[in-house]
Amino acid sequence: MNQKSYIFTPIVKDILKEGDSYPYSLYRQVDEKLFGLILKKEQLLDPTVDTSFLRDTTPVFIKSSERHYYQQYIQKNISEILDNDEVDLDSKATLINHIAIETMNDLFESDVTSENLIKIDKVINNTIKLMLSEYKAMYSMLKVTTYDYYTYTHCIDVATYAIAFGIYLNFTKEDLEVLGKAAMLHDLGKKEIDSRIITKHGKLTKNEFEIVKDHPVFSVKILRDLGETDIRLLTAIAQHHEKCNGKGYPLGLKADEISEFAKIVSICDVFNALTTRRTYKDRMSTFSAFQIMCKEMMHDLSIYHLREFIQFMGYKDI
């Protein structure tokens, strides 16, 4: 038995199968503060081991200290997992979300490198692959969006909504890749802003808001400095805070001057911000968020894309 001095993290059990071994140990919960070892690190899951836990509802845990090994295993095997019909859609969506969280957290906590961005591409491609595999997969991905607001989880959620909405609009796979990456990286420039401003509890001062308004420019600069040349990607990121009435930033562009991808990222950005919880406010319901977007932001957002987004989300009477 392992005592409570360890911290344990639940994992997706569907990826476990007889005949395999894993770079982390597996545990089951015995009581509230006690965990029992099921399988040692690198031990084969074979007939010498009690495998009954694979066929019941028993949750499986790993030590939180071995979470990095779990993430590495998932990233290495994600293509095979997505192709495995024995792994259900919700589990696949959860695994992609776990990879995305780890990848985006690394991106915001360390220097941005070409290697980081390659990992982002893989997350986007796997998200698109799953969503295009069957229609229900889109909703499995939407179910794993978060209720609490952090910059990196917000970026993941905005990308998830944007890709799903793009599929609804019949975008090509190439367009989905650009749109998804733009949504995932739209707030990257916040890395360049004092964290005390980004994490402030409550309303920003006028001066603080002026500083935050530079983040789309910073995002584009970071990507250009790393060799990014896709103009549609850079434009969508640069314009995601522009408003159709010309009162947005950083350039005050009007409706016909704003790219379609930027309009979509903007809607997904606002929707996620309204429906996630922060330290100074509770989350809104989807219905309440749409009411605000339609009544208070109707001149800010693209009316066509907002109406389509609302219908995509299953609301027809707003």
UniProtKB/TrEMBL annotation:
- The question of whether Membrane is a record keyword is answered with yes
- PANTHER family under this entry? CYCLIC DI-GMP PHOSPHODIESTERASE PA4108 (PTHR43155:SF2), CYCLIC DI-GMP PHOSPHODIESTERASE PA4108-RELATED (PTHR43155)
Q: What is this protein called?
A: HD-GYP domain-containing protein
Q: Which InterPro entries does its entry note?
A: HD/PDEase_dom, HD_GYP_dom, HDIG_dom
Keyword check for Membrane, yes or no.
yes
Keyword vocabulary terms for this entry: Membrane
Q: Where is the HD-GYP domain?
A: 130-318
